[in-house]
Amino acid sequence: MIAVLGALSVEPMTGYAVRENIRDVLGHFWSESVGQIYPTLADLERQGLVRRQHGARPGSSMFAITPEGHEHLKELLGEPIQQAPPRNGLLLRLFFGSTLGPDACRALLEQARADARQRLAGFQALRAAITAEDNPDQLPYSLITISAGEHSARGVIAWADESLAALDAAAPEAPAALDATAPPE
């Protein structure tokens, strides 16, 4: 509900635009069930927190947040943050790395680093796009959240580099290759 109201607090949108905005912008740090967006919009409309307007195309609807919706959003944003219990499949696998083996752990770390580099590039592109928009009231807040994503991605890259080095340092020395020309002992 917060994500939908928040998206509509920026500007009126169609349900499809809300879905795309949540996926493409908020999706970097917030996961929302796409199947819940239209029922949430209908529920918010019943509560008087958004109003539906006819869209530019027949059959399409624009949704706009109402003053009551703004107040409700402020209340929701003011509630204490509920931390979700951590569930990190990568760290779970690495914790049991002695069973998985160093090569598989190395592959997981390399993939995590590659994914983080891709996320960092995405955040940098998002920074450029948002900076180019004309929304000075929202800009500092958008940049704060983008910065958190950039720092997180850089942190994963540094951690993966450090972890790969630790795996390399822990690897037993490979036996010297047998010289085929040397006489057997």
From TrEMBL:
SUPFAM superfamilies: Winged helix' DNA-binding domain. Gene3D superfamilies: 6.10.140.190, Winged helix-like DNA-binding domain superfamily/Winged helix DNA-binding domain. Signal peptide: none annotated. Residues 87-168 form the Transcription regulator PadR C-terminal domain. Residues 4-75 form the Transcription regulator PadR N-terminal domain. It holds the Pfam family PadR. It comes from the Bacteria. This is PadR family transcriptional regulator. The lineage of its organism: Bacteria, Bacillati, Actinomycetota, Actinomycetes, Streptosporangiales.
